[in-house]
Amino acid sequence: MTLFVNNLTHLDTSLWCPRRGLIGASWHVDAELDGQLGDDGMLFDFGEVKPWLKTHLDDGPDHTLLVPLESPGLSVQDCREGLCIRAQAPYAMEVRGPRQAFTLLPWSEITPQRLAEHYSNLLSRRPPPRVDAIRLRLHEEAIEGAAFTYSHGLKRHAGNCQRIAHGHRSRLCLWENGSRQPMLEAAWAERLQDRYLVSEEDISDPGLPGPRGQLTVRYQAGQGQFMLRLPRDRCIVMPTPTTIEHIAAWLAARILHETGRELRVQAFEGIGKGAYSGMSPLTHHD
């Protein structure tokens, strides 16, 4: 007998891609669990199994940087902060932080299918009582219209959002006089795609001007010391922390500055959570 549950939870991560570089990702997690019916007529108490599954995923890949160890030009070394990850293609990157901020995987490239299979096997080795096997499926949120991926780190966050290279895949909605603006949404999603959003107060070295300049981000957070170095053109510098509330307000201000148009911005932090800014008071939605 198999019990299934769709949208059990979701994962927000960043990953290193040998073709695109540092990118954010958000995936729904579906689960199937095999087992035998008990005397109560159920496979098991799913109220107990669900938090077990979610805890293992939250303590595993969620809010980490997924690192494909066999990617060309990539290296991993111990360092004072914990681990140092360096990559060369498609551009140079260096990131340092505590070990729990990274998920190291023995592949040349990360895919949601491979990641789901990997964690299905890991979780099935020691399943909860009456569970024989676990199968996971990871898939992106279905988004009609503009969407983009970004990475960031929030040093003041008490949880895992403080990790310097985690990210999201998010939709973007812009309204003018109550009407959606799909062309403007697509243009801004393209500008934000695969970018690292950084607070200017966390920049320790702005690097040299020009296409070869490298921007260095460094901060101390509750989990330890973090550092990230990326090409300047892969970064978007904000005057505030890169929370979703500030991202929405920044987008509204930038669009007004560049176009003179006062729009209502609805920005999302991955799946479900977001904030409004612009023509309405700033409102937070969980």
UniProtKB/TrEMBL annotation:
Enzyme class per UniProt: lyase
Pathway(s) the chain acts in: Purine metabolism; 7-cyano-7-deazaguanine biosynthesis
Gene3D superfamilies named in the record: 6-pyruvoyl tetrahydropterin synthase/QueD
EC number: 4.1.2.50
Catalytic activity: 7,8-dihydroneopterin 3'-triphosphate + H2O = 6-carboxy-5,6,7,8-tetrahydropterin + triphosphate + acetaldehyde + 2 H(+)
GO molecular function: 6-carboxytetrahydropterin synthase activity
InterPro entries according to UniProt: 6-PTP_synth/QueD (IPR007115), 6-PTP_synth/QueD_sf (IPR038418)
Family the entry assigns: Belongs to the PTPS family. QueD subfamily.
Name by which UniProt lists this protein: 6-carboxy-5,6,7,8-tetrahydropterin synthase
Organism encoding this protein: Modicisalibacter xianhensis
